[in-house]
């Protein structure tokens, strides 16, 4: 569920800082099933690479971002870059990105520890991927592993930022904690993690103090790693000072 028409404070704020934002839809339910959605996102990335200069953007400075399942797609866009099996008809197109921002992301579809409050393995296999057989079968567990960002990190070389509320009942915060820990121990790229106390699933889509703390942190992260032209800090104004308060909210780098 969801739509690119759902625009939260982060998108509007970054647009006000002169970032070029491309909001992407993918097919939510298809006869083919997942990974159709990942391929759709790669097609959108191909379009961005080819056309974004028309809008003033830089095809060599792309940050993939997403909420919930979109966070999973953002992570996988990075970890499956240039893999021909997910680029049918455009296998030779460069689909690398320069950064990833995951918001309440789906990081672990396998969930052997059963942190989820719902049968996530069965739901994904049966309702999203439309695959046959038991979700516990070796073949389906392999499929779930291949499409879980947690197990595809493998020496990631682009900066990541992950944001998660600590009372998320849909996508377990523990999965993101595990992702961040594994990333830090295996990857050369930097990762920043903001865990927000009292944050529900996709809390950032609604304006609130929590959301604006998150917006401040994300805007400074984007500026630090990706914006060598515009000085985002000067546009943020007094909010640039408030980011230090995030330390008490679980900010770590």
UniProtKB/TrEMBL annotation:
UniProt KW keywords: Hydrolase
GO molecular function, one term: hydrolase activity
Superkingdom per UniProt: Eukaryota
Domain BD-FAE-like: 10-181
Entry keyword rRNA-binding: no
Hydrolase as UniProt keyword: yes
Protein name (database record): BD-FAE-like domain-containing protein
Originating organism: Entomortierella chlamydospora
């Amino acid at each position: 569920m969801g739509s690119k028409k759902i625009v939260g404070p982060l998108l509007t704020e970054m647009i006000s800082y002169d970032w070029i934002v491309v909001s992407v839809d993918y097919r939510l339910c298809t006869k083919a099933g997942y990974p159709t959605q990942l391929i759709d996102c790669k097609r959108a990335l191909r379009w961005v690479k080819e056309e974004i200069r028309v809008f003033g953007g830089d095809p060599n400075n792309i940050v993939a971002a997403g909420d919930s399942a979109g966070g999973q797609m953002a992570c996988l866009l990075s970890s499956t870059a240039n893999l021909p099996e997910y680029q049918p008809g455009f296998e030779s197109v460069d689909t690398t990105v320069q950064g990833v921002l995951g918001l309440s992301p789906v990081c672990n579809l396998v969930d052997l520890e059963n942190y989820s409050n719902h049968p996530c393995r069965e739901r994904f296999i049966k309702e999203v991927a439309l695959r046959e057989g038991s979700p516990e079968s070796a073949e389906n567990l392999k499929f779930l592993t291949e499409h879980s960002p947690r197990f595809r990190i493998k020496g990631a070389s682009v900066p990541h930022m992950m944001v998660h509320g600590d009372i998320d009942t849909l996508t377990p915060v523990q999965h993101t904690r595990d992702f961040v820990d594994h990333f830090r121990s295996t990857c050369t790229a930097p990762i920043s993690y903001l865990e927000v106390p009292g944050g529900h699933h996709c809390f950032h889509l609604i304006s609130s103090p929590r959301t604006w703390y998150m917006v401040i942190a994300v805007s400074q992260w984007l500026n630090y790693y990706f914006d060598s032209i515009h000085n985002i800090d000067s546009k943020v104004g007094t909010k640039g000072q408030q980011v230090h308060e995030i330390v008490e909210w679980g900010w770590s780098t």
